[in-house]
């Protein structure tokens, strides 16, 4: 895989770090344990966003039937597989070939057909995706503005984009690095706090790429309930965007 293109957004060190975690990505108690805890809350947010954007039967099992979804920074498929089960024709991209191999093997075991590629998003020729997702990824790329522009270029005119990322606050440093990477189960070296992006900064990048943010919400941790959606964006947040109307 060639990742050193003129507009490459992939950071090779980041790709190597996450590729080293590929073998136990699907182990809920392994190096990706935090993502397993985050995933149910992210999926609830995504399902609500889908139902708002494409009104219909909110009880439907496959609301993405007939739609194409692109998950960028897919890892071993924690989000791509649920998107496929929701009916989408899914393409998953990741910088680490090791993750793509793990994703392909797991999807095969689940009898799911997902197009996994170890390809930078800016090198993809495909466009016109109804749903573009990239969860906990932008804080690891080499050029956030170029990355957002590449995501926007893949989105269909009436499509929906959903992103999540840590905020750059003292609380996020404490929660995700000081605690998270010592006793919280996050592998050491996963995060660089200086690369975290605030909601205002990410909104500006999306606007520069011709998109508008329609919904933004925080992702908080409650000792009794685990991760929850919240008005507090101090640690992490999710947002939904679409092409400007």
UniProtKB/TrEMBL annotation:
<dbReference type="GO" id="GO:0032259">
    <property type="term" value="P:methylation"/>
</dbReference>
<comment type="similarity">
    <text>Belongs to the methyltransferase superfamily. UbiG/COQ3 family.</text>
</comment>
<dbReference type="GO" id="GO:0102208">
    <property type="term" value="F:2-polyprenyl-6-hydroxyphenol methylase activity"/>
</dbReference>
<keyword id="KW-0489">Methyltransferase</keyword>
<feature type="binding site">
    <location>
        <position position="94"/>
    </location>
    <ligand>
        <name>S-adenosyl-L-methionine</name>
    </ligand>
</feature>
<feature type="binding site">
    <location>
        <position position="135"/>
    </location>
    <ligand>
        <name>S-adenosyl-L-methionine</name>
    </ligand>
</feature>
<dbReference type="Pfam" id="PF13489">
    <property type="entry name" value="Methyltransf_23"/>
</dbReference>
<dbReference type="InterPro" id="IPR010233">
    <property type="entry name" value="UbiG_MeTrfase"/>
</dbReference>
<dbReference type="InterPro" id="IPR029063">
    <property type="entry name" value="SAM-dependent_MTases_sf"/>
</dbReference>
<dbReference type="GO" id="GO:0061542">
    <property type="term" value="F:3-demethylubiquinol 3-O-methyltransferase activity"/>
</dbReference>
<comment type="pathway">
    <text>Cofactor biosynthesis; ubiquinone biosynthesis.</text>
</comment>
<dbReference type="InterPro" id="IPR020557">
    <property type="entry name" value="Fumarate_lyase_CS"/>
</dbReference>
<keyword id="KW-0949">S-adenosyl-L-methionine</keyword>
<keyword id="KW-0831">Ubiquinone biosynthesis</keyword>
<keyword id="KW-0808">Transferase</keyword>
<feature type="binding site">
    <location>
        <position position="42"/>
    </location>
    <ligand>
        <name>S-adenosyl-L-methionine</name>
    </ligand>
</feature>
<protein>
    <recommendedName>
        <fullName>Ubiquinone biosynthesis O-methyltransferase</fullName>
        <ecNumber>2.1.1.222</ecNumber>
        <ecNumber>2.1.1.64</ecNumber>
    </recommendedName>
</protein>
<comment type="function">
    <text>O-methyltransferase that catalyzes the 2 O-methylation steps in the ubiquinone biosynthetic pathway.</text>
</comment>
<feature type="binding site">
    <location>
        <position position="73"/>
    </location>
    <ligand>
        <name>S-adenosyl-L-methionine</name>
    </ligand>
</feature>
């Amino acid at each position: 895989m060639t990742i050193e293109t003129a507009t490459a957004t992939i950071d090779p060190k980041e790709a190597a770090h996450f590729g080293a975690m590929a073998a136990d990505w699907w182990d809920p108690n392994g190096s990706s344990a935090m993502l397993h805890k985050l995933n149910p809350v992210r999926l609830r947010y995504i399902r609500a966003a889908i139902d708002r954007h494409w009104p219909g039967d909110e009880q439907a099992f496959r609301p993405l039937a007939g739609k194409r979804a692109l998950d960028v920074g897919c890892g071993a498929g924690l989000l791509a597989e649920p998107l496929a089960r929701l009916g989408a024709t899914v393409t998953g991209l990741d910088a680490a070939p090791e993750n793509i191999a793990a994703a392909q093997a797991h999807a095969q075991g689940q009898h799911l057909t997902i197009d996994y590629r170890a390809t930078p998003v800016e090198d993809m020729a495909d466009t016109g995706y109804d749903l573009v997702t990239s969860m906990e990824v932008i804080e690891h790329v080499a050029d956030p503005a170029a990355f957002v522009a590449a995501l926007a270029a893949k989105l269909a005119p009436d499509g929906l984009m959903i992103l999540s990322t840590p905020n750059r606050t003292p609380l996020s440093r404490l929660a995700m690095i000081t605690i998270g990477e010592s006793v919280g189960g996050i592998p050491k070296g996963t995060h660089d706090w200086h690369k975290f992006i605030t909601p205002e900064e990410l909104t500006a990048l999306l606007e520069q790429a011709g998109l508008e943010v329609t919904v933004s919400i925080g992702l908080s941790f409650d000792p009794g309930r685990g991760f929850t959606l919240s008005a507090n964006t101090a640690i992490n947040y999710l947002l939904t965007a679409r092409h400007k109307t």
